[in-house]
């Protein structure tokens, strides 16, 4: 799987189940090798202040099990294996590096599939623009009996700010995206889901220090929206373990986090 496949619609289900002439191991290994953005050795910060991604992981290192939370109402399998998920969406550039490890041994989990998805600067989710404008409850989304939400059926064909990557030998993936916006009832966040083989082993959220949130929200295009009332301390899902370690990175930011899960 070469670089020309970046951005192609590639079924995560095929990635996981190995429905390919390469087989599961070969396909995952090929994808991990092809996606250069997942290699710690090839990540070069765009500014001296960004430091080194490995150093950021050392700072963010934890062997605590990552807090699991609901996937929310706007998840669906977008079938997009790619590192850059922006699709031209305006906003402050954000590089997100995620290391996945076994929560019992703290060893990296190569070939784990990591998905992320989040709203744009206006608080809208791709595949659900009309629904996220009204808000999940107003749009009729109701959690299941266990408090979880079912996967949604996309209401439009847009897929911005959604994507998946295959972890390299160090258990690392990296995405290029924008700083998320906000919507009523929630603090600023990124959703993340980790798959091992055909199992969803972790669903969580990634969040930011409020000092940085306020700084970014004061810039365009975010500043066009006013009325943000829910901050980290009052958010229903916030946990300090979800905070990304974030540093300036040229015209944007570089953020890193380690996710620990059961296998």
From TrEMBL:
<dbReference type="InterPro" id="IPR015889">
    <property type="entry name" value="Intradiol_dOase_core"/>
</dbReference>
<keyword id="KW-0560">Oxidoreductase</keyword>
<dbReference type="GO" id="GO:0016702">
    <property type="term" value="F:oxidoreductase activity, acting on single donors with incorporation of molecular oxygen, incorporation of two atoms of oxygen"/>
</dbReference>
<feature type="domain" description="Intradiol ring-cleavage dioxygenases">
    <location>
        <begin position="77"/>
        <end position="210"/>
    </location>
</feature>
<dbReference type="Pfam" id="PF00775">
    <property type="entry name" value="Dioxygenase_C"/>
</dbReference>
<dbReference type="InterPro" id="IPR006311">
    <property type="entry name" value="TAT_signal"/>
</dbReference>
<protein>
    <submittedName>
        <fullName>Protocatechuate dioxygenase</fullName>
    </submittedName>
</protein>
<dbReference type="GO" id="GO:0008199">
    <property type="term" value="F:ferric iron binding"/>
</dbReference>
<dbReference type="InterPro" id="IPR000627">
    <property type="entry name" value="Intradiol_dOase_C"/>
</dbReference>
<keyword id="KW-0223">Dioxygenase</keyword>
């Amino acid at each position: 799987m070469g670089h020309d496949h970046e951005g192609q619609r590639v079924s995560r289900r095929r990635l996981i189940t190995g429905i390919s002439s390469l087989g599961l191991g070969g396909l995952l290994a090929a994808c991990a090798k092809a996606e250069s953005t997942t290699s710690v050795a090839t990540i070069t910060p765009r500014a001296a202040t960004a430091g080194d991604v490995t150093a950021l992981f050392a700072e963010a290192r934890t062997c605590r099990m990552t807090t699991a939370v609901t996937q929310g109402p706007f998840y669906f399998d977008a079938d997009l294996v790619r590192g850059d998920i922006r699709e031209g969406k305006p906003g402050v550039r954000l590089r997100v590096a995620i290391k996945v490890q076994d929560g019992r041994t703290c060893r990296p989990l190569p070939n784990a599939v990591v998905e992320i998805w989040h709203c744009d600067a206006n608080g809208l989710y791709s595949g659900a623009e009309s629904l996220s404008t009204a808000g999940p409850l107003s749009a009729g989304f109701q959690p299941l009996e266990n408090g979880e939400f079912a996967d949604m059926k996309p209401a439009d064909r847009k897929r911005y700010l959604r994507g998946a990557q295959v972890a390299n030998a160090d258990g690392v993936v990296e995405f290029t995206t924008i700083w998320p916006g906000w919507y009523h009832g929630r603090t600023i966040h990124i959703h993340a889901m980790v798959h091992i083989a055909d199992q969803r082993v972790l669903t969580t959220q990634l969040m930011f220090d409020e000092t940085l949130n306020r700084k970014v929200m004061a810039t365009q295009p975010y500043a066009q929206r006013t009325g943000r009332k829910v901050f980290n301390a009052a958010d229903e899902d916030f946990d300090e373990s979800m905070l990304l370690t974030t540093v300036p990175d040229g015209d944007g930011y570089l953020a890193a986090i380690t996710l620990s899960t059961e296998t």
